[in-house]
Amino acid sequence: MKAQRLLVLALSATLNSETAATAQTSLTGRTITQLSVGDYVWPRFSPSGRLLAVSQVLVDSTEENTQILILDMRRRVLDTLLAANAAAKYAVYKAYVRDFQWLSDTSLLAWIPDGDVGSTAVTFNVRTRRILHEEHHEGDGEDPYQPLADSLAHLYPEVAPSGVSPSAVFGSGLAWPTVRGRGFVLLQKRYAGVDDDVWIYRLDRREATRILPLPRGSLAGGFVTGRDIIFAAGNDTLALYRVRRGRLEPLMRVSVRPQRASVAVRAQRGDSVWFLLSLHDSYERGNNRAFLYDGEHLLPLADYDTLADFDVHLPTRRVAFVYWNGQQRHVAVKELLTR
Among 177, 184, 197, which Cα is nearest to 277's? Predict the structure, then answer.
């Protein structure tokens, strides 16, 4: 595969006046690099932090396509790992990146849906820019939640209405956002005839605790620290909650449709967690929220009022923001000032 190498032209220490930047927060410093020509999604740092993978969205009058780019932070160059003409072969109706996973500093896994019911997992050698492996997946495949659903059903058979399998009830809840911790799962069952409340179910013994009554609401996911459970849930208003020693406490609230919200952890070090609270679909211009939860306080990374996504690399103290500028999403890599 012949790689197209491009010099990064949009390198600047400050954001220009046309971007959607707000005042710099105390968590970030100078801007190291920008990609301000094109539409970019899925910024993901390599394990060393030297490389940043991004997908460039390409749309013409007939279809959507992608190309995968690698930004080398040391050499300040942008390399094409998968060109648009090569990506087009994965499309039925369109090709786009759904996620990246760095397997090592030289190996990157990209999930590329075909716009229909299939997707292809493509593993690249980043150094040689060659494809190492392709694996096509059709439909949903096996249910990854069934073993856990069966375990919960064995412990809590009473959750199911008469004539309904408790495994089906728990399987329905596990297919939506949940929070997994050591020896427990926090979930909303989401099954007809069953309550919509948020519960903590122990996995090692029969102990179920109703944490939050949530009629007509949705659980949007969360994470676990050493002593806390943090989760997002709501109906007309989404709230971030903390559970500590059995006590529920709201940390913040925002008016949003909870069914479209999600929580994604970007990095964790001890009780400190950097995470994204998504409030909009990836293609929808809006303002998702980036936070650092330091074990006590919720600290916003509020550099952009039209944030789409971000990633953080703690050892190199870098944070990559994707933000909306007009109808496109641009990238800015900044210094991270937190320890």
Answer: 177
